DNA sequence: ATTGGCGCTCACGCCCAAGGAGTGCTGGGC
DNA sequence: GCCCAGCACTCCTTGGGCGTGAGCGCCAAT
């Protein structure tokens, strides 16, 4: 019993690997007979049972009841993805196809289609955290709708457009609006709103009083527009999860899961976690600390703009998922999204 | 048997009414004993059974199996909502509360919150068809991102903002961009893109060749932006339907239903139907011709801007819903949305 | 026309038995 | 010391049988 000291000998690893693979493939608890057939090792079921008992003791597998086969525990999956899994990267042709799907000309749509891409390819739920904004702007424009309603159009540093209606006390003439916009555009483009606020205060005492009021409103609106849409989670293909019998057996669990999807902030927290590390990360079962995700895994990867991580893409599916397929898909999607966003 | 001639005598109507109400209230097939208790008529179960048999012959009710009570058929519901139902309008206080929820400052968000409102209040799925755009624009702006990438910002006649990146062959200077925008804004604001296209072609032969190319691109993009986001369906609270046991018993049906939700165009067609009539409309069960909606009802009402119908709000829920509550909610939401959109 | 009574039909819940899958253990062979 | 055939055991699953209760249709009496 020397090898029970944490480490798994080669045979145990191989058996664990094929067990997980079998289970992922057909969702049934795997018995000793099946393992003896598929492991490639020329061992009788009886011998295999011994190893399985060890694996169970160590918490890698468990049996739903006495006379069923074994299924992987979270720990089993964890070991599997960490050291047993062999991922086959996608080939060039597939990548090119994917690249074609991401040719879209504005950030929101790009993010949305990345999310769709993930859900379509994996048949699970795709998630994308929208890119963090730097908080500056590239261009500002005021447009008069009615006397006291002014449309603020704001092009962010990232090149997408925010808009917002400002209610004013005073009436501004079109030329005043143009002038205000010019001042902001010429002097402060690229700065953060905080910075602008300070500098406007300091430098522009001479500007007419009511003009600077307009600017204050603009800054507040800009601030809000930026912070409001700061980081959001775009989910698609939740419906796919309805088809997964692992999840849709427990109606209550399923509802909890979908409730989680509506709670963007919780999800955001989880996903943001991933944007601190490089490369693909995997949360298995309850590892994330969220009960509704008990029987789910989350596969994530950060994406970047100009070499800086700005968001996360990911897939949420059942713990019993084909990791060797999902992982490269998430990986590639993150990379494609990075390059699609960078080249603008 | 004279009254079997289509018409329902008063007693039959009253019994049908209480039967439907009972069934809506607790979801169990209603038997003759229950009806005799709750109808208010002083009749024995046996007499009531006779009437029920008539109602069944006429197709208003049916029994799931021999020894269960009766449940309303689609036809029964139809008769119920058409002539038996007594809706109680919401009181002022509630309306004011709702009005508070719809104070948002841009069309997309307004539509989204209307949809949320519907789903929150009814605990079913809320749908809103986004307002039809007239196809003109109020203001156009070109903004240079890189040499050959130009950001087109388009304020529609309705006052919301579209944006889109144009890839150009040639390089335009900032002043050229300003000039092009000016031409469009000064001469063509308010016209449809089709009209502009014709007039630009006719009137602007003298404009430099490469300038008019830019405009063509702008028009094409504008056209596309308008037509693309022309009409869309915003759905919220689909998750609520997971909790409805009428629907979530059949996993397959449920999946079909959610698939329908992803098929915006089909849904759009159904909802657009409603925007041809005034006031609240109801589709019960398969009446809409869509199989996934077999056990659903759709309650819709058109909303307007400046007196013209531009879209539809609605609720999708199980056939067995509290119509007397849902109908006024949909009605009011349509009216609130109308006024919120008109006052801008 | 209304009603009490009667027999009938099903769905539902329960129990029980048979069948099957898979385990753990043991004892013998290499 | 490792491997493995055999065996007893456990426990899920399936299906049949039975009692119960709800509700109906019909009928004869009022």
Question: How would you summarize the topology of this molecule?
Answer:
Two copies of one chain form a homodimer.
Chain A: H1 10-26, H2 32-38, H3 45-57, E1 61-62, E2 71-72, H4 74-84, H5 92-101, H6 107-122, E3 125-129, E4 137-146, E5 149-156, E6 161-167, H7 174-188, H8 193-203, H9 209-228, E7 233-236, H10 240-243, H11 245-248, H12 251-262, H13 264-274, E8 281-284, E9 296-305, E10 308-318, H14 323-342
Helix pairs in contact in A: 1-3, 1-4, 2-3, 6-14, 8-9
The first copy, chain A, binds a DNA duplex (30 and 30 nucleotides) through residues 29, 31-33, 43-47, 49-50, 52-53, 63-69.
The CATH topology of the largest domain in chain A is Beta-Lactamase
What global shape of chain A is seen? elongated
Q: What structural class do you assign from the helix and strand content of chain A? A: alpha+beta
Distance between the termini of chain A: 61 Å
- What is the number of helices of chain A? 14
Total separate domains of chain A: 3
Strand tally of chain A, please?
10
Kindly report the greatest chain-chain contact and the residue count on each side: A-B, 30 and 30 residues
What would CATH call the architecture of the largest domain in chain A? 2-Layer Sandwich
Give the C-alpha Rg of chain A.
27 Å
The residue fraction in helices of chain A comes out at 40-55%
Overall pLDDT confidence of chain A: 86
CATH class of the largest domain in chain A: Alpha Beta
Strand order of the largest sheet of chain A: 7-3-10-9-8
Main sheet record of chain A: 5 strands, antiparallel
What are the segments of chain A in which pLDDT stays under 50 over at least 5 consecutive residues?
1-5
Q: Tell me the CATH superfamily of the largest domain in chain A.
A: GAF domain
């Amino acid at each position: 019993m020397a090898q029970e000291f944490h480490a798994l000998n080669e045979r145990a690893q191989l058996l664990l690997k094929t067990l997980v693979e079998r289970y992922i493939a057909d969702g049934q608890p795997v018995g000793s007979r099946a393992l003896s057939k598929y492991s490639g090792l020329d061992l009788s079921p009886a011998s295999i049972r011994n190893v399985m008992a060890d694996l169970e003791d160590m918490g890698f597998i468990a049996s739903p009841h006495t006379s069923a086969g074994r299924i992987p525990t979270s720990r089993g999956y964890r070991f599997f993805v960490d050291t047993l899994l062999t991922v086959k990267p996608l080939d060039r042709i597939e990548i090119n196809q994917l690249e074609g799907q991401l040719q879209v000309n504005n950030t929101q749509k790009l993010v949305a289609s990345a999310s769709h891409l993930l859900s379509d390819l994996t048949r699970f739920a795709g998630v994308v955290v929208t890119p963090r904004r730097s908080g500056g702007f590239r261009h500002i424009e005021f447009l008069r709708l009615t006397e006291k309603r002014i449309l603020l159009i704001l092009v962010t540093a990232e090149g997408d457009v925010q808009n917002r209606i400002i209610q004013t006390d005073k009436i501004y003439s079109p030329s005043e609006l143009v002038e205000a916009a010019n001042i902001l555009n010429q002097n402060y483009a690229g700065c953060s709103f905080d910075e602008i606020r300070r500098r406007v205060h300091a430098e522009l005492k001479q500007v007419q009083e009511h003009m600077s009021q307009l600017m204050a409103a603009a800054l507040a609106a800009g601030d809000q527009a930026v912070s409001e849409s700061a980081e959001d989670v775009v989910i698609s293909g939740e419906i796919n999860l309805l088809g997964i019998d692992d999840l849709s057996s427990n109606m209550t669990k399923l509802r909890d899961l979908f409730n989680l999807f509506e709670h963007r902030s919780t999800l955001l927290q989880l996903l943001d976690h991933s944007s601190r590390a490089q490369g693909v990360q995997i949360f298995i079962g309850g590892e994330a600390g969220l009960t509704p995700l008990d029987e789910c895994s989350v596969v994530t990867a950060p994406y970047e703009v100009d070499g800086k991580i700005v968001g996360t893409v990911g897939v949420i599916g059942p713990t019993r998922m084909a990791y060797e397929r999902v992982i490269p898909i998430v990986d590639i999607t993150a990379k494609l999204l990075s390059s699609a966003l960078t080249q603008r």
